[in-house]
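Worked example 3. Consider a protein that binds adenosine-5'-triphosphate.
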Amino acid sequence: MPPGAPQPQQMPERQPIPGVKNLVAVASGKGGVGKTTVAVNLALALSKLGHKVGLLDADVYGPNVPIMLGTTQEPLATMDKRIIPIDVAGLKMLSMGLLNPGDKPMIWRGPMLHSVITQFLRSAQWGELDHLIIDLPPGTGDVQLTLIQTVAVTGAVVVTTPSTVALADVRKAIEMFRQVNVEVLGVVENMSTFTCPHCAKPIDIFGHGEGAKTAQAYGVPILGEIEIDPRIRIGGDTGKPVALQGENAIGAKSLYDLARAVTTRLDQLSGTPSGPSVQID
Ligand SMILES: Nc1ncnc2c1ncn2[C@@H]1O[C@H](COP(=O)(O)OP(=O)(O)OP(=O)(O)O)[C@@H](O)[C@H]1O
Ligand SMILES: [Mg+2]
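Given these inputs, the predicted complex is written out as structure tokens:
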């Protein structure tokens, strides 16, 4: 290399989080496809299935996890200033929304974003967890990069709707994880077939089956298809996600199937079972 030429960017070593077995990022190329809904319900379903679960809201500008879990509890810190995730609905949880509640927007540039995400990941006291689920903001930007460079992400769950526009973006998300050597655990088709409550007929509002086709095209599993169900939205809006009511609650079955598909994939990757999968009430 000639003298003075720019050095190739060194990728920092990706460290595991001590005590945390699996780090699962929930991502999408496009906004509004249901990442937070999937991340929250996935975390709750895994917890109900007997796993120890943490949930990190990495959407610093638009943190929705506290609303979906119905909490405004402020996290405390240890004597050595390590932030302690709050306990909510059986999960350990951290979100910028707990530190900056209300409607005041976070107006931060990249380096500050990097710093807060790094602190949430590296210096928070997560304790012993089977899974830390990370709800990402949409796209392939700063937070995604910081996450990937800072910790050893076990795998990514990529959420899409069956519509073509969302699918064009899901391909970008899959490609991003591939380029940075993060395993794509699979694709989730959210807002899949709606069942009419009056005539029980299935209605494909955004289409159906496109998520599976994309997954197949990229050689990754389809982890689940989550129906459009007003109860899923209401659960999120009122701080009582459907998965909290257990697998037999209406609207929860596909979310528990997703949780099992995710643990199966994680078990395949690690070669060891990641814990129980019998529901504990
Ligand atoms: N399967 C579903 N059935 C009904 N409503 C849903 C479903 N999934 C998500 N929603 C609703 O769609 C809206 C967007 O969902 P959500 O906030 O989870 O998306 P997101 O991808 O996290 O958005 P953002 O990109 O802004 O972070 C919410 O009102 C949510 O309740
Ligand atoms: Mg979100």
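Take a moment to read the result before moving on. Residues 27 and 158 are 5 Å apart (CA to CA). The domain at 20-270 is CATH 3.40.50.300 (Rossmann fold).
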